[in-house]
């Protein structure tokens, strides 16, 4: 589950990470109230208006603006709320902005220049360890840094059974070239950030920039957070943070129906039981010259109702040119699945794309007969290769 910046900052703050403070607003009027409140609480005279959408690069797309008066807060909020924000991380259509974060200005002048760093915590799947990636070259161009000067990005690996050790936090602060008060602030920041990452069961915390203010405070100015869906059951207090407006509508519907569906860019829809078989089926589609339009695991109970829901979901994707059903009948009998497919097809009336059904396992031959005698425009297959050939044939 992806979070908005303001939600990520809320979690960070609850674990003791210093943040740029802000208040979320849905309208320009609310934005002005929020700005007044922030000025009372923090003494800030300027405010930053930040579009809240699930995409980075907002600054580049005009979704982050500095307001130097309450009139500007109102005007800029009015411009950003409702806009279609296009950033390097959104699709070409962009993302509609429903709300803004009104934040205190933390780039105020002082003894030193403010400095921007990059920091993220994530899982290194290759080593099975967590890692902190960080760089002195924070700000809006970290992707370019990663590409052109990768040696400027440091990584610190953390054994999850030991947690972040104090010397590791100090090493991060040292590599960022800090000393004195800022050094202490940074070790505190890193320690609290790692705690937030593990205790919230996140798979990503990306803070870009981490800011060293002109008076040597270290704070999170941005927060891109992904929580691990598999651990959400033990974070009921975060459930309300889900913003369905930001998610793929077909995926949301699938989740409600208890199906495991991931939308992809291809042209062959697939319906499979079991994640491993789904992966293999996607490979098979690629081999046959197609591209999978989705990942869909219907799970163990492939009855008529579930099959119908799955068909409907797949057909909502206008790119789908064919559907491959690949079901292994282990616990569930193939003939029952076949009956489910036939019933679902009949219930739906016409389906305008060719369907190839491969059923293997218990009662596979009875299932094939059922499909073949149904009088429907559905092709059956028993072998994997046979199914692949039939997919290839309908695509060419
Ligand atoms: P992103 O573009 O989506 O990554 O959004 P960020 O939250 O990182 O903000 C983009 C940029 O806005 C930052 O890199 C800063 O340069 C700038 N910015 C953010 N907060 C402030 C602030 O308080 N004052 C000023 N002057 N600039 C800010
Ligand atoms: Mn950022």
TrEMBL record:
<feature type="binding site">
    <location>
        <position position="116"/>
    </location>
    <ligand>
        <name>ATP</name>
    </ligand>
</feature>
<dbReference type="GO" id="GO:0006099">
    <property type="term" value="P:tricarboxylic acid cycle"/>
</dbReference>
<comment type="function">
    <text>Succinyl-CoA synthetase functions in the citric acid cycle (TCA), coupling the hydrolysis of succinyl-CoA to the synthesis of either ATP or GTP and thus represents the only step of substrate-level phosphorylation in the TCA. The beta subunit provides nucleotide specificity of the enzyme and binds the substrate succinate, while the binding sites for coenzyme A and phosphate are found in the alpha subunit.</text>
</comment>
<dbReference type="GO" id="GO:0042709">
    <property type="term" value="C:succinate-CoA ligase complex"/>
</dbReference>
<keyword id="KW-0547">Nucleotide-binding</keyword>
<keyword id="KW-0436">Ligase</keyword>
<feature type="binding site">
    <location>
        <begin position="57"/>
        <end position="59"/>
    </location>
    <ligand>
        <name>ATP</name>
    </ligand>
</feature>
<dbReference type="GO" id="GO:0005524">
    <property type="term" value="F:ATP binding"/>
</dbReference>
<dbReference type="InterPro" id="IPR017866">
    <property type="entry name" value="Succ-CoA_synthase_bsu_CS"/>
</dbReference>
<feature type="binding site">
    <location>
        <position position="50"/>
    </location>
    <ligand>
        <name>ATP</name>
    </ligand>
</feature>
<dbReference type="Pfam" id="PF00549">
    <property type="entry name" value="Ligase_CoA"/>
</dbReference>
<feature type="domain" description="ATP-citrate synthase/succinyl-CoA ligase C-terminal">
    <location>
        <begin position="271"/>
        <end position="390"/>
    </location>
</feature>
<feature type="binding site">
    <location>
        <position position="208"/>
    </location>
    <ligand>
        <name>Mg(2+)</name>
    </ligand>
</feature>
<comment type="pathway">
    <text>Carbohydrate metabolism; tricarboxylic acid cycle; succinate from succinyl-CoA (ligase route): step 1/1.</text>
</comment>
<feature type="domain" description="ATP-grasp fold succinyl-CoA synthetase-type">
    <location>
        <begin position="2"/>
        <end position="210"/>
    </location>
</feature>
<feature type="binding site">
    <location>
        <begin position="330"/>
        <end position="332"/>
    </location>
    <ligand>
        <name>substrate</name>
    </ligand>
</feature>
<dbReference type="GO" id="GO:0004775">
    <property type="term" value="F:succinate-CoA ligase (ADP-forming) activity"/>
</dbReference>
<dbReference type="GO" id="GO:0005829">
    <property type="term" value="C:cytosol"/>
</dbReference>
<keyword id="KW-0067">ATP-binding</keyword>
<dbReference type="InterPro" id="IPR013650">
    <property type="entry name" value="ATP-grasp_succ-CoA_synth-type"/>
</dbReference>
<dbReference type="InterPro" id="IPR005811">
    <property type="entry name" value="SUCC_ACL_C"/>
</dbReference>
<dbReference type="Pfam" id="PF08442">
    <property type="entry name" value="ATP-grasp_2"/>
</dbReference>
<keyword id="KW-0460">Magnesium</keyword>
<comment type="subunit">
    <text>Heterotetramer of two alpha and two beta subunits.</text>
</comment>
<dbReference type="GO" id="GO:0006104">
    <property type="term" value="P:succinyl-CoA metabolic process"/>
</dbReference>
<feature type="binding site">
    <location>
        <position position="273"/>
    </location>
    <ligand>
        <name>substrate</name>
    </ligand>
</feature>
<protein>
    <recommendedName>
        <fullName>Succinate--CoA ligase [ADP-forming] subunit beta</fullName>
        <ecNumber>6.2.1.5</ecNumber>
    </recommendedName>
</protein>
<comment type="similarity">
    <text>Belongs to the succinate/malate CoA ligase beta subunit family.</text>
</comment>
<dbReference type="GO" id="GO:0000287">
    <property type="term" value="F:magnesium ion binding"/>
</dbReference>
<keyword id="KW-0816">Tricarboxylic acid cycle</keyword>
<feature type="binding site">
    <location>
        <position position="106"/>
    </location>
    <ligand>
        <name>ATP</name>
    </ligand>
</feature>
<dbReference type="InterPro" id="IPR005809">
    <property type="entry name" value="Succ_CoA_ligase-like_bsu"/>
</dbReference>
<keyword id="KW-0479">Metal-binding</keyword>
<feature type="binding site">
    <location>
        <position position="222"/>
    </location>
    <ligand>
        <name>Mg(2+)</name>
    </ligand>
</feature>
